[in-house]
Amino acid sequence: MGTNEKLIAMQQLVFATNNAHKLTEVQAAVAGKIKLLSLNDINCNDDIPETGTTFIANASIKSRYIYNKFALNCFGDDSGLEIEALNGEPGVYSARYAGKHGNHAANNARVLQNLQGVANRKAWFITVISLIWNGEEHFFEGTVEGTIREELSGSEGFGYDPIFQPDGYDITFAEMTLEQKNVISHRGRAVAKLVDFLMANA
To answer: What is the count of structural domains for the chain?
Structure first.
């Protein structure tokens, strides 16, 4: 086994999420670099509560929950959309902005409703990753700036992807392939920092 193969073999990480879309995105981003384990892979069916009031707090809650229960190297993330004209909303409450957790259609509809007639459409996505590696916690952040469209466009991705157009592009995240999105997305950028850390510290 070569040096690179040994590094990859050592890097087994649990991603503390029940979100299949997030798991797919990160698996694509780390393919060939890290062996990513899902909660299902470690027989964890727990619904980890997100009781924090910041992205950092929620990411840390997830990673610490898994590490404390299973003693495995792991990471959790928290992500959200912040809109300048809405004073940073939906922010940490992005997944449940319209009330029910994970109702993407309702969340998008509320954003569009709240921005009706508003000229300033500036927004940004943020991802914070909390990695617990050999008992120590490390944080990685990724952001991407853009604007909110006036209507939904595209069928790929999830969440607010159909209404978010990243700066420098004339299409939304939901009109991009997963590979295109991972290059510039908030989660892709945070994961790239995570991978760099692991390659340097494995």
So the answer is: 1
Region 93-101 average pLDDT: 91
In CATH, what number is assigned to the domain containing residue 69?
3.90.950.10
- Structure tokens belonging to residue 101: 């957790």
The Cα-based distances of 87 to 98, 120, 123, 167, 193 in angstroms read 16, 12, 10, 20, 28
Q: Is 78 a catalytic residue?
A: yes
* Domain interval for residue 107: 3-201
User: CA gyration radius for the chain?
Assistant: 17
Q: 3-class secondary structure for 81-150?
A: EEEHHHCCCEHHHHHHCCCCCCCHHHHHHHHHHHCCCCCCCEEEEEEEEEEEECCEEEEEEEEEEEEECC
8 pLDDT band, cuts 50/70/90, is very low
* Annotated catalytic residue within 41, 46, 47, 78: 78
Ligand-binding site membership of 121 (annotated)? no
Report whether 181 belongs to an annotated binding site.
yes
Q: What is the mean pLDDT of residues 49-68?
A: 95
